[in-house]
Specification:
By secondary structure, this protein is of the alpha/beta class. It has helices spanning 3-10, 56-64, 78-87, 111-117, 164-169, 198-201, 220-249, 277-280, 308-315, 330-334, 381-384, 387-397, 403-406, 438-455, and strands at residues 31-37, 66-68, 71-72, 121-126, 148-150, 177-182, 256-262, 284-287, 297-299, 303-304, 344-348, 357-361, 365-370, 416-420. It comes from Novipirellula caenicola.
Length: 505
Amino acid sequence: MNLPTRLILAGWFLLPLASTEAAEPAPTKPNVVIMIADDVSWNDFGCYGNPAARTPNIDELASQGMRFTKAFLTASSCSPSRASIITGRYPHNLGRAAELHEPIAANLAWFPAVLRQAGYYTALVGKNHMAAEPPAAGQSPPAKPWDLVDPGVTPDNHGAEARWTSTLKNRPKDKPFFCWFASLDAHRNWDADKEWVAEKYGPKHQPEDVIVPPFLADEPATRQDSASYYNEVTRFDYFVGEVTRTLAAEGELDNTLILVLADNGRPFPRAKTRLHDSGMKTALVAHWPEGIAGKGVTTSSLVSVIDIAPTVIEVAGAEVPETVQGVSMTPIFQDADATIRRFAFSEHNWHDYEAHGRSVRDGEFLYIRNSRPTMAWQGPADSVRSPSHQRLRRLRDDEKLSEAQADVFLAPRPVEELYKTEDDPNQLHNLAFDPEYKQVKSRLSKVLDQWTQETGDAVPEHLTADQFDRETGESLKPGKGSKHPRGTPPGGPNDAIHIHQAGPR
């Protein structure tokens, strides 16, 4: 690491050697911009090898920055994933926020609040989906994370991106800034199709050009569904480019760490909410000319999205709170071969349907443990309602599913799954009961046990039950005047909100 970069990362400056020398100005603190897509799988950007995806602006950032090939989410579910990123903690260590639409425990620090206290202007524009529980009696309220919160939706853009660039232009010019730009693209139901502006986004994606994964039906309804999804990804990409061009025009691009990623996999069967790569792996592109060594760098170093919080806090020169369980990625910015962790852990908790699954990756193997094996992992309700899922359902009823497609409905499921991910990128061949991989399974099972114990995870007796029909995706109406009861969150029995151990890394 060269000296200027070290100074920037530490947030320090050199004092003059003698009083007669002119004082050197303190280096400007780096700005940070995170652009997070909604429901986009890791391989649906062009720079990750999808020949049908049109993402020229993200591809350009990758060509000038760093592309991570082994970055993993902690949850393939919108709000738990975002809450995990914003706190640097595993979902079960967040309290009720381990489950969809639930708030984060009041005692936990959010990294934008740390930046704001360090003198940053902080703005959230777009999808929020994160809330803090009110403090208990006698408990201090959590520090305010945002100077600006703007839902970002305009009449002609329901992707929530239209005010990203104006936020940059109108920010206070006397402070470093952190912006969390959160798109609603590509969340169902699709709206980019009817809001399409060809002069901005180019031609719409055509059904015949999309890539259909083996666990979907390669038929017209699925292809049209996928083309509409691709359109949302391309609209997100356009605004990534608008932000990058605005930063350049403002003279801030070189001094800004940009991170582009998604909160979970695409909203299709066997993706969103899955522990497999189609749900839990994320694209992660980093761009920071003053802080990343080299251009067009690809790194296979293993990272988790809980590592974003300590990275950004370190870049800002602030102190990482004890509640953060992640580890900084800054060594990888200087050396693409650096190792910051040996394992990445992920969770599948309630998202429309009862669930409790856990996984660990070591960069070569993926090990999954399922505490609700009698239940299918069919995907969330919006995916179940989709044309893609309903076409699979008809094929199932006609007994015409392939083995890969049948996994969408499989019940009971294996309690354990093991995959060698480089050889099996879609994780279709379970090695958990292959004698050749007995030692691998045993080793990763022990690592998962250790993580479970040290971080306070648990399988409560009463988890939150299904709130949607597993066949149709339609809401299961509770009794008149009542609400669906919530179960015990997975970290509840062990008071995991007060456990800050990270487990094996």
